[in-house]
TrEMBL record:
HAMAP family referenced in this protein's UniProt entry, alphabetically: Transaldolase_3b
Species per Swiss-Prot/TrEMBL record: Anaerococcus prevotii (strain ATCC 9321 / DSM 20548 / JCM 6508 / NCTC 11806 / PC1)
Tagged with keyword Transferase: yes
Entry annotated with the keyword tRNA processing: no
Swiss-Prot/TrEMBL catalytic activity: D-sedoheptulose 7-phosphate + D-glyceraldehyde 3-phosphate = D-erythrose 4-phosphate + beta-D-fructose 6-phosphate
Gene behind the chain: tal
Cellular localization per UniProt: Cytoplasm
Source organism phylogeny: Bacteria, Bacillati, Bacillota, Tissierellia, Tissierellales
Residue numbers annotated as active site: 83 (schiff-base intermediate with substrate)
GO biological process terms held by the UniProt record: carbohydrate metabolic process; pentose-phosphate shunt
Protein name per UniProt: Probable transaldolase
General function of this protein: Transaldolase is important for the balance of metabolites in the pentose-phosphate pathway.
TM region(s), chain numbering: none
Length: 215
């Protein structure tokens, strides 16, 4: 399973990339807005830090505008993935861009049928929003399982990036459901490898070792 970081915070990205655990980055207009930096400048900087795919989202919603914007974004770096929202115009844009060899990430997916449409249009990645699906009282895990099932049955090339991951359980469920990638907010990352019993165990071992050495 690959880990992407769902952030545009360059310090967070550098730290986790240095751990060797960052396979890519996803951004969206809300994430970019949080950093308060120039869109092009921050995306280009992230693309230099990280070897893997970096998603940058279009901000227009009409087919022609999206395609034009996507062509421009794709030239910013070799590892840019153009994020396109799941709309009729978006599907049309994904189809055109995939024919031009521009990689896309179809975002804001909340149902299996939306996912299938994005795969069929040729999206390189599809982004179901696990937390927001759970918020609707439905099962994000089931959606990921079903998306994976369809990919395996029909041999679609699209990879699933699970987005809107809010806590450890979401990550664990995404892994068990067969997601190719989880995109994780920087804030959550450290919670994935920490556990109070691990901390307590280390403290106890340290104390006992000190007692042993002072005998
Ligand atoms: O990648 C999408 C993510 O940023 C949205 O998360 O928690 O607002 O549903 P959330």
């Amino acid at each position: 399973m690959k880990f992407f970081l769902d952030t545009a915070n360059v310090d967070e990205i550098k730290r986790i990339n240095d751990l060797g655990l960052c396979d890519g980055v996803t951004t969206n207009p809300s994430i970019i807005n949080k950093e308060g930096r120039d869109f092009e400048e921050v995306v280009k900087e992230i693309c230099q830090i990280v070897d893997g795919p970096v998603s940058a989202e279009v901000t227009s919603y009409e087919y022609e505008d999206m395609v034009e914007e996507a062509r421009k974004l794709s030239k910013w770096a070799d590892n840019i993935i153009v994020k396109i929202p799941m709309t009729e115009e978006g599907l049309k844009a994904i189809k055109t861009l995939s024919e031009e060899g521009i990689k896309t990430n179809c975002t804001l997916i909340f149902s299996l049928s939306q996912g299938i449409m994005a795969m069929k249009a040729g999206a390189t990645f599809i982004s179901p929003f696990m937390g927001r699906v759970d918020d609707m009282g439905e099962s994000g895990k089931k959606l990921i399982e079903n998306l994976r099932k369809v990919i395996d049955i029909y041999g679609y090339d699209s990879e699933i990036i699970v987005a809107s991951i809010r806590h450890n359980k979401h990550l664990e469920e995404a892994a068990l459901a067969g997601a190719h990638i989880a995109t994780i907010p920087g804030k959550l990352f450290d919670k994935l490898w920490t556990h109070p019993l691990t901390t307590a165990g280390i403290e106890a071992f340290k104390k006992d070792w000190e007692a042993f050495e002072n005998r």
